[in-house]
Design goal:
- The protein is about 45% helix and about 20% strand.
- By secondary structure, it is α/β, with parallel strands linked by helices.
- The protein has two domains: about 200 residues, inorganic pyrophosphatase (n-terminal core), CATH 3.90.1640.10; about 120 residues, Diaminopimelate Epimerase, Chain A, domain 1 (Roll).
- The strands form two sheets. Strands 6-7-8-9-11-10 form a six-stranded mixed sheet, sandwiched between helices.
- A hairpin with a 2-residue loop joins strand 6 and strand 7.
- It is globular.
Length: about 325
């Protein structure tokens, strides 16, 4: 039982403070899984204080969801004072931005809980890694902890888990039978599906819409083995821009952005591209690209991200080289 491993570590350290950390611009799966886990830990270990923080804060949608779930985030987590650190939905510690060195130097044991392929450096740092690529989301993994502990989620906890799963599966379009069964159990726990979907519907910010349009305007298209690949660059909202290019017809979209020497790259592809080529964007493309950019990369089979140092043009060229090599294999 995975939750038992976590509780054993908490008890072994006689933990008084547990700090939960989420990746930068934390999405609903990250924030909701952190809230659901913090609630479970408090129910199992009432004497423990739990803190939640997200590098550079939560995303716009996540902030909106905080109106519906009673989660509180701190701006400056007590990383150095923590007895246990838990990193959620975060494939590489580079996604913790300014907290990276603080986490590396922390004396507390580190637990990683994620549904992405685990990164080697993250594995080296962690005392315990709970990673399940078959799970739709980190929220689904946390729900598994509730079942292992035989704890029925309260309505707020069930709602948070449902919202995280719904977000990461694109309103269950990408859900498998296991995920749909979980969703049904959450509905039985009190979740109103129609209301939950309304919570996830937030008008797109004008700056995000402009970034998407700029990415389309700047896009360079190429065909590799009959696959349509779109490359572009914008200073912000790279992930959203990549999704937009996919929705317009690209099989694979790579959108980069640069601030000073820092480079971020978002990759998205269709299910068909992944299934027919066998290419896993997180493992096969983002990871080596992150190493090339002296940073880190990782993610899912059809969505991934990279943080590093360099320039946009070099990052995009290297990405295409990696893709061509993988497609030849």
């Amino acid at each position: 039982m995975q939750i038992r491993k976590i509780i054993n570590l908490i008890e072994e350290k006689n933990a008084k403070l547990i700090v939960l950390l989420c990746h930068h611009n934390a999405d609903p799966d990250a924030i909701c899984s952190a809230y659901a886990l913090s609630s479970l830990l408090k129910r199992l270990k009432p004497e423990v204080e739990v803190e939640i923080a997200a590098a550079q804060g939560a995303s716009r949608l996540s902030k909106h969801l905080l109106n519906y779930i009673p989660a509180s985030l701190v701006d400056d987590p007590r990383i150095e004072d923590a007895d246990v650190l838990i990193i959620l939905d975060t494939n590489t510690i580079q996604q913790l931005d300014d907290w990276v060195e603080r986490v590396r130097n922390a004396k507390a044991p580190i637990i990683v809980i994620d549904h992405h392929a685990s990164h080697p450096e993250t594995e080296r740092l962690a005392t315990l890694v709970i990673a399940d690529e078959n799970a739709s989301s980190t929220c689904e993994i946390i729900y598994g902890f509730y079942k292992e502990a035989k704890v029925k989620p309260h309505k707020d906890e069930a709602l948070a888990i449902f919202l995280g799963i719904a977000f990461d599966t694109r309103h269950f379009i990408l859900a498998n039978s296991t995920t749909l069964k979980v969703a049904a159990e959450l509905v039985d726990a009190g979740v109103n599906v129609q209301e939950a979907f309304k919570m996830l519907s937030l008008p797109m910010d004008p700056s995000e819409r402009i970034a998407r349009l700029k990415a389309c305007q700047r896009a360079k298209l190429m065909k590799i083995n009959d696959w349509i690949v779109a490359l572009s660059h914008v200073s912000a909202f790279q992930a959203s821009a990549a999704r937009a290019l996919i929705s317009l017809g690209a099989d694979l979209a790579v959108v980069a952005g640069q601030v000073d020497d820092a480079v971020r790259v978002s990759l998205r592809c269709t299910n068909e591209f992944h299934e027919k080529t066998g290419i896993h964007l997180g493992r096969d493309v983002a990871k080596p690209l992150g190493e090339y950019l002296h940073g880190m990369g990782g993610g899912h089979s059809i969505s991934a991200g990279v943080n590093g140092v360099g320039d946009v043009e070099a990052a995009l060229k290297k990405c295409i080289k990696i893709l061509r090599r993988k497609l030849r294999e």
